[in-house]
Design goal:
The protein is globular. By secondary structure, it is α/β, with parallel strands linked by helices. Helix 1 runs parallel beside helix 7. The strands form 4 sheets. Strands 6-5-14-15-16-13-17 form a 7-stranded mixed sheet, sandwiched between helices. The two termini are 30 Å apart. Helices cover 32% and strands 28% of the residues. A hairpin with a 5-residue loop joins strand 15 and strand 16. The structure holds flavin-adenine dinucleotide (FAD). Flavin-adenine dinucleotide (FAD) binds next to helix 1, strand 3, helix 4 and helix 7.
Length: 377
């Protein structure tokens, strides 16, 4: 029996564990830094049909219907005037079984963790040291150690395990932007609404059938090293107020007093894609590559990367990083282009963007190439 260590109990690590749960050939353990998994947060996540197809393989069809929402459209608005610019029929990429899905991140984690026996998850543990070879000897933060055939590195964007393996500083850069997340209740909105403004955008979408909505805004912000390394800076009420005030000032959508559970964090993205020589170590999810959050593909790509790593281990082949690199290049290009287009500030550039957008959303060939290519896997 092959032994697999999964580092990190997030979306990618849990999806990988779900793929192993009925496999007799593998034994696995998940090592998680935190003392318990947070199942309380009410923020949302978007899953496109490429990841729904993979989630269906582990029973996602059975998730209670009131915990998810299937939008029909993505509506684009000018944030300042709140005039609608155009819309995309996102449901046109759906099939009977695979639909673009909105839900709480905690609902997804609950679903993923449901099938994992609790004794498989070892909390409060990180990898301290690795001895490489056909077998990998891991020394953990409590000084215990164990031998594994494969290592799945799924400890997220700030992956410490990746830094240990590559033996160099993290490959991340601050994207000169801050994300502000919040919840809103009781809106009359059954779709994904993207409001584009000068140097910021925000997105509102339903996360279930209980009138709960996710609010996420990305605002350009230059921050210095001290501010970025101070975790309390992002929790500071003055800073949170400065972000929400900027949104209220720049948009005529009436949001004042409606945003609840406001949180902010800095947006870090990967500088480059790194190919690893060790054939028995797989970086997956954000630990492999972290995108700017403007194409809503982070979780979907995390699930895809875990599925690909599983298939490579199962088929004893070695093309994981080459295949992933191609896919990540396509998604990263679209994420950066969306970010650029959503944040334009020059009125002439905005005028041209809006005309181009109106034309492109009616062009089926463009949509098939820009979205369909990513949504099909
Ligand atoms: C503002 C914002 C909005 C987003 N919206 C969307 C969206 O709408 N749709 C979408 O698809 N994606 C979205 N994403 C991206 C998505 O959330 C991530 O891509 C996804 O969660 C990555 O999953 P993961 O498993 O790689 O990491 P995570 O889900 O972050 O999990 C990592 C796990 O590893 C643990 N861990 C950390 N360090 C260690 C360690 N040293 N040892 C052991 N365990 C450790 C953590 O505690 C955590 O449990 C968004 C991201 C941002 C920033």
């Amino acid at each position: 029996m092959k032994k697999i260590a999964i580092i990190g109990c997030g979306i990618s690590g849990l999806y990988f564990a779900n793929l192993l749960k009925d496999e007799k050939l593998y034994d696995y353990t998940i090592f998680e830094k935190k003392s318990k998994i947070d199942l309380g947060d009410g923020y949302g996540i978007q899953l496109s049909v490429n990841s729904i197809k993979l989630l269906n393989k582990i029973g996602f069809r059975n998730i209670p219907i009131n915990e998810i929402f299937f939008p029909d459209k993505v509506n684009f608005f000018d944030a300042k005037t709140i005039k609608k610019i155009c819309e995309i029929d996102i449901s046109s990429f759906n099939s009977t079984d695979c639909k673009y899905t909105l839900l709480k991140r905690s609902s997804l984690i609950k679903f993923l963790i449901n099938n994992i026996p609790p004794h498989k998850i070892k909390n409060n543990l990180e990898v301290k040291q690795i001895k490489y070879g056909d077998k990998l000897r891991l020394t953990l933060s409590d000084d215990s150690s164990g031998e594994f055939d494969f290592l799945i590195v799924s400890d997220g964007v700030f992956s410490k395990t990746k830094t240990t393996i590559l033996n160099k500083d993290s490959n991340l850069k601050y994207f000169n932007s801050v994300a502000l997340r919040a919840n809103i209740k009781n809106l009359n909105n059954r779709n994904i609404s993207i409001y584009m403004g000068s140097n910021f955008h925000f997105v509102i979408y339903p996360i279930n059938h209980n009138n709960e909505f996710n609010f996420i805004s990305i605002l350009k912000r230059k921050l210095n090293k001290e501010e970025l390394s101070d975790k309390d800076f992002f929790k500071n009420n003055k800073f949170l107020k400065s972000l929400s005030d900027e949104i209220y000032e720049k948009s005529s959508l009436d949001l004042k007093g409606k945003l609840e559970n406001i949180k902010s964090f800095p947006v870090f993205v990967s500088k480059s894609f790194e190919i690893l020589k060790h054939k028995n170590i797989f970086f997956v999810g954000d630990a492999l590559f972290s995108f700017s959050p403007s194409f809503a593909q982070g979780a979907s790509q995390s699930i895809e990367s875990s599925k690909e790593a599983f298939d490579i281990i199962n088929s004893n082949s070695s093309s994981y990083y080459e295949k992933r690199k191609k896919r990540i290049k396509e998604v990263n290009f679209r994420s950066k282009l969306n970010f650029f287009a959503f944040h334009l500030s020059n009125p002439i550039a905005i005028f041209i963007r809006n005309i181009v957008l109106k034309l492109l959303v009616k062009n089926r060939k463009f949509l098939e190439n820009y979205l369909g290519r990513i949504y099909k896997n």
